[in-house]
Amino acid sequence: MLKVLLLILSIGAIADAELCKPDAQNAFKVRLSIKTALGDNAYAWDANEEYLFKAMVAFTMRKYSRRSTTQISNVLLCNVTDRVSFWFVVTDSSKNMTTVPGSEVEAAIRLNRKRINNAFLLSEKTLQFLKITTTLSPPVEPSTPVWLIVFGVVLCVTVAGIVFLIVAGIHQRKKKNKDSSERENLEEKGEVTVTIENGIPCEALDLKAGRVNGVFTADDERFTSL
């Protein structure tokens, strides 16, 4: 009985080895950079971590493809290295010695990638599924539409330009009126200039008032009477 049991186990191990090997059909390679991600807080990769990985993959397959019969035993790991890299496949529980199509496994991993990363305290850069492309986060849309922002900027620039032109026009008009008023005041203001000739103060002729210097007028009258 014991020999039969050992034979069955050996056959199962051989079958698993054929299903899970590098570059096998529907197999995926995983690489973890635990030391890089966590530094001094890095944990050792052991059988418990392998069990957690299998559990996360089984959970992912159950949730994505509704394979409610997927068990941890359906996730096979092989070629585990000390630098923490390995290959894995997911076997189909409903069919003996058959793996789940790689496209289905890839879609399930992509859907639950974040939860798998969080389980190991890693990111997509430190927990890599080499055949599975990185899951891109959806672009963040601004709360305010871009067109509304552009419209607001253009409107502000236009209003600022109009205000500047109005203020500049008012300032120029005031300056022009001030210069014109000063010229008119100078023309209308009558200023009398007093000059000194031979020690005698004489009033210059005021053209606007039409006045004549009185000193010269007196001399003219005196010579006229003679």
From TrEMBL:
It comes from the Eukaryota. It is found in: Cell membrane. InterPro entries: Collectrin, Collectrin_dom. The chain crosses the membrane at residues 146-170. It is a single-pass type I membrane protein. One of its GO terms (biological process) is positive regulation of amino acid transport. Keywords: Cell membrane, Glycoprotein, Membrane, Phosphoprotein, Signal, Transmembrane, Transmembrane helix. GO terms for cellular component: extracellular exosome; plasma membrane. Residues 24-226 form the Collectrin-like domain. Residues 1-17 form the signal peptide. PROSITE patterns: COLLECTRIN_LIKE (PS52010). This is TMM27 protein. It comes from Turnix velox (Little buttonquail). The gene is Tmem27.
